[in-house]
Amino acid sequence: MTLARQDVAKVAKxxxxxxxxxxxxxxxxxxxxxxxxxxxxxxxxxAAVAPLAHPLETQNVFRxxxxxxxxxxxxxxxxxxxxxxxxxxxxxxLGESGAA
Amino acid sequence: xxxxxLSATEIxxxxxxxxxxxxxxxxAFLDRIARLDGSxxxxxxxxxxxxxATAARIDERRRAGKPIGPLAGLPVAVKDxxxxxxxxxxxxxxxxxxxxxxxxxxxxxxxxAADAVIVGKTNMDExxxxxSNENSAFGPVHNPWDLARAPGGSSGGSAACVAADMAPVxxxxxxxxxIRQPAGLCGITGLKPTYGRVSRRGLVAFASxxxxxxxxxxxxxxxxxxLETIAGHDPGDSTSLAADVPHYTExxxxxxxxLRIGRVPEHYAAGxxxxxxxxxxxxxxxxxxxxATIVDVELPHAKYGVPTYYLVAPCEASSxxxxxxGAHYGVRAEPGKGVRAEPGKGVRAEPGKGVRAEPGKGVRAxxxxxxxxxxxxxxRGEGFGPEVKRRIMLGTYALSAGYYDAYxxxxxxxxxxxxxxxxxxxxxxxxxxxxxxxxxxxxxxEKTGDPLAMYLVDLYTVATNLAGVGGISFPCGFTKGGLPIxxxxxxxxxxxxxxxxxxxxxxxxxxxxxxxxKACA
Lengths: 100, 521
Known about the structure:
The complex is a heterodimer.
Chain A: H1 5-14, H2 21-38, H3 73-77
Chain B: H1 8-17, H2 22-40, E1 43-46, H3 48-63, E2 75-79, H4 106-113, E3 117-122, H5 156-163, E4 169-174, H6 180-186, E5 189-192, E6 212-217, H7 220-230, E7 260-263, H8 274-289, E8 293-296, H9 305-320, E9 332-333, E10 339-340, H10 371-383, H11 386-399, H12 405-428, E11 431-435, H13 451-455, H14 462-467, E12 470-478, E13 484-491, H15 496-509
Parallel strand pairs in B: 2-3, 2-4, 7-8, 7-11
Antiparallel strand pairs in B: 1-3, 4-6, 5-6, 5-12, 9-10, 11-13, 12-13
Helix pairs in contact in B: 2-3, 5-6, 7-15, 9-11, 9-12
């Protein structure tokens, strides 16, 4: 199994990961190898098998709809790289890159 | 009486009776950490003053005749994947360097409520991804039995600190073997409970349908003691089990007569080290002596465990790790600048040394849609190490349009087949025994260039997590070179009493678990 470098670059974008040139080269080779390895599941006949996403096949777990203590705003913001005391501050959501 | 020579059970009894103070006990282990950890690197953070202050408060309460908790005075080391409000929690990642969580993990809160003394946070593979501890952003842990070898992973710091008597007990987490495999390679006892037995609230999520917290100690009896405190339902984790928590320590002392232990022929495939095989065979003989019956059982889909795991776990990880976005916590790379760590702490990349947008080559920062997206991508590109990136990439790929059915959905179907094998086997036997790792501890650096070879170290452990059942690993011998050999028992859901009882019986009949590495005398 060989993945194309441009496909790996596309996955990196989906994953919101900036990769250097060297990282992208290495990732392309390593992912190709790993995807080739996991592809050994392919021949198994699973047509009649239901997927198992979780070992506890529980349905919804509910609690009473009453307010309970939660983090304060200050606690929620305490580790933020940037905040103004009320909100997390981030670079511009719209607009071209570098135009911050 | 040297506190470091006592079991957790003995420490708790001695503190309760007033034969040992919590302060003296905590000090003894802190002194060992100060003396030994420079060469082992099991701890990422040790807060001596806070630990001694906690111990002093426990001693005061005892002297005043006030009630003390069931683990009063017991020093415990906690894997750095569990949130501690008073100590940094980094998951051994640059991404979280210096991060202090706003709350304690449920397990940490239960330990504190039981008057255990948290001595520090242990090193691990970054975000618990790895089998050797070499993926830590803060340097590898060295195996106390041979400092040139890996302790296993991802809970390598927790395993090594117990093996070197730097803590009588440590907390680990196990997503595909991360408690059992390092316990095996470091010659200690590690229990991965049934999925949901211990709350995951405050355990930094790796793969939510597989992650489980468990105790690591020098004996099964000590694991039983700690499990009594940390197990139980938590309304804050909707996947935690509501079942009553048995008195594990009181259930240990029952003979094994009539116990059926399965032996899986597939476990003996090529690649199993002959010395490990001999140790495992001898362990079966000990169980036979103890009155157990050994029965061959088949787990026909076990051989698909590793490929199934390396789809399910990375897919869940790629989703869970999306939270590291440079906005809420962790490092941030500002557009046009290097990485900016959280104020006053953590890493700071050299200006211009961050992610370079090389025209036409790498994934260019300037290809991203907005300054916000650029910040996400650069923060994550800088903050995560290579293995974490690999797994995020693999998971994102396997979940992406056009590949979801072929990879993720396929893996979930095989996961059901793997679990079905266990359910059928546990109709015939009470437990399943076998090796925990195919080889003893390998050399640091031996597998770092080959991600796939590293994935195969999880061969005997991943299926337990995929099936959601429990497993325990403990030493069953040593190689001629003096490295521990681990034995693994797996049991059906909520069979912790049987797992602990069988391992405890084995430890009453053998003395492998009492051996100590010479380098750590």
